[in-house]
Design a protein that fits this description.
The complex is a heterodimer.
Chain A: H1 2-24, H2 36-65, H3 74-96, H4 101-110, H5 112-129, H6 133-139, H7 141-147, H8 149-164, H9 170-189, H10 191-208
Chain B: H1 18-30, H2 34-57, E1 66-67, H3 80-85, H4 98-102, E2 112-117, E3 123-126, H5 127-131, E4 137-144, E5 149-159, H6 160-166, E6 175-180, E7 200-204, H7 205-209, E8 214-219, E9 222-223, E10 233-235, E11 248-254, H8 261-265, E12 289-292, E13 302-303, H9 311-314
Parallel strand pairs in B: 1-4, 2-11, 5-12
Antiparallel strand pairs in B: 2-3, 4-5, 5-8, 6-7, 6-11, 8-9, 8-10, 12-13
The chains are: A mainly alpha, B alpha+beta.
């Protein structure tokens, strides 16, 4: 299991991208429909979010099942989230905006949902770059602090999705609910510490006045 | 152009039932195991193909019409398959493939249209009565969606103005209001509240009487497929596609501008006029360019033209109007 588990999961993670490629090249009668660029853009974006969510599920699953096996897959899922995010942005710049960097820049500064998406990409880069065991050892506590950025990234991702939907918000609402559960779980786990912070804040506040 | 093919090529079992699809999404969002996630991605491909086949099977009956080259563009029409499987028709669902999938059993016979408001002749008319005096013609129009994509569609229909004149609108008739059928039993989208129902659209009287404005009963030489607005729909080629109201059951002459659905639902994003205008962005995306449906994956976006290229015929309707304000 130890030696087949990861390659298996790794291959499964690649399936959505392979399916898109097969559709784009018309393999085996597959097709991406009338607007292939939109399909590629949205599929990659959604899988980036899906993998972010799956990554965030590993710790709750560990707690729930009292098994650390989940943590072995966390980096893999996180890197796949990055992979699909990079694909998403590549499709946007190369196919949707025809490599017109002026148009892309205009979008970034004029459209808040694209600003949010780009911020998420920027934050994801240092996480992917420090995903190695070596970086983890070198950075120690700072690694943990840095990688808490994933909460912000997930938030930006859902917000970005919500804002670009025309009218039917059912699906972004599902993602937002999922995110609330995943982040809520962390807050609940830290409730003692959070409570302590609030108390300290109060004491400090009283002293200052 | 894709040819309609044999019926019964797909069975209902091939189509992912919506409840299953939503459960999958819910599982994913909630963080289900990876296996389920991968399966979800793979299953969607088959369902999309099945939907496309279903739509092609529903081709309509051939129509008798004359080609009208003076009102046609020379660009290559969009493929029948794309034009009939990629539709915005929220009454049948918000996904582009929903209308083709969910409208197959929609009943367009019998059909009647109520004519009301500021006109001498009003009442309920059967579709046959509505159509009888009008000779059908084919016009190939550009169609620009507010979402930034476009098609070229060979419509079969007749000028709206010719119909409106029959009802002798009075001097109080300044606008025309159209309504889509409200029938949640047949139109599953109307059971939700994504938009206020029924769908309402409207035109200023001079826009309605412009010779470009068409009432369509067909596409590609045949009666309209249900997903394209059967049995009767509006086509206003210089305006964004959402002005082209489908499955019309009511036409009313009014003194004041009608409260149109999208303008009511998101007033900062969609206006009453909705003229195609590359200079006025949608708040969330640029309208300067468009993607032509059916072009290759690496095809460049093309520039969007003012009034969708129909400026010579319609720009004069808006002389002196601030089109940034009246978008």
């Amino acid at each position: 299991m130890r030696f087949v588990g990861k390659p298996l999961v790794w291959s499964a993670c690649l399936l959505p991208a392979l399916r898109l490629a097969a559709g784009a090249f018309g393999l085996d009668g597959m097709s991406l429909g009338a607007d292939p660029v939109a399909v590629m853009l949205h599929t990659c974006g959604k899988w980036a979010l899906n993998f972010l969510f799956i990554t965030l599920c590993m710790t709750p699953l560990k707690d729930l099942t009292h098994s650390v096996i989940w943590l072995r897959f966390r980096r893999l899922f996180g890197l796949f989230a990055f992979f699909y995010l990079v694909l998403h942005v590549t499709v946007y710049v190369v196919l949707d905006q025809d490599r017109n960097l002026t148009a892309v820049w205009q979008d970034i500064i004029k459209r808040p949902y694209i600003t949010l998406g780009m911020l998420a990409l920027l934050m994801m880069i240092p996480l992917a770059a420090t995903s190695t065991a070596k970086a983890q050892r070198r950075l120690r506590v700072r690694w943990l602090e840095l990688h808490r950025l994933i909460y912000v990234i997930a938030l930006l991702g859902v917000w970005h999705y919500w804002w670009q939907v025309k009218k039917d918000i059912r699906e972004p609402l599902l993602y937002a609910t999922g995110l609330a559960l995943l982040l809520g779980y962390r807050l609940w786990k830290q409730r003692q510490r959070l409570l302590a912070w609030v108390m300290i804040g109060r004491v400090a506040g009283t002293r200052a006045s | 152009m894709a040819k309609p093919t044999d019926s019964n090529r797909i069975s209902a079992a091939d189509i992912t039932p919506p409840e299953k699809f939503w459960t999958r999404r819910a599982l994913l969002a909630g963080g289900a195991a990876l296996g389920g996630a991968a399966l979800g991605g793979a299953a969607l491909g088959g369902a999309a193909l099945a939907r496309a086949a279903a739509a092609e099977d529903a081709a309509g009956a051939p129509l008798v019409y004359a080609k009208n080259p003076t009102f046609s563009v020379s660009e290559t029409p969009t493929s029948y398959r794309d034009a009939t499987t990629y539709n915005n028709y929220y009454e049948f669902g918000t996904d582009k493939s929903d209308p083709a999938q969910n409208s197959q059993n929609f009943r367009t016979k019998p059909w009647s249209v109520s004519i009301g408001g500021e006109a001498e002749v009003t009442g309920s008319f059967t579709l046959e009565d509505i159509l009888k005096p009008h000779a059908l013609e084919e016009r190939i129009y550009r169609m620009r969606c507010v979402e930034g994509w476009s098609m070229v569609i060979p419509w079969v229909g007749f000028p709206l103005g010719d119909l409106l004149k029959r009802f002798k609108p009075t001097s109080k008739a300044k606008f025309v209001e159209f309504k889509t059928l409200y029938d949640p039993k047949q139109m599953p989208g109307e059971r939700g509240s994504v938009l206020p129902w029924p769908y309402v659209e409207g035109l200023r009287m001079d826009e309605a009487m412009n010779p470009l404005t068409l009432l369509a009963v067909g596409v590609y030489g045949k009666t309209l497929p249900n997903q394209n607005g059967a049995p009767l729909r509006l086509v206003v080629p210089w305006k964004y596609g959402f002005k082209g109201i489908k499955a019309i059951v009511s036409i009313k002459f009014t003194e004041r501008a009608p409260q149109t659905t999208w303008a009511q639902s998101a007033p900062t994003e969609y206006g009453f006029f909705a003229n195609v205008n590359p200079a006025v962005d949608h708040p969330r995306w640029s309208q300067a360019t468009e993607r032509r449906i059916g072009a290759s994956l690496f095809a460049q976006r093309q520039p969007t033209l003012p009034f969708n290229g129909y400026g010579a015929q319609v720009a004069s309707l808006y002389t002196g109007m601030d089109l940034r304000r009246y978008f």
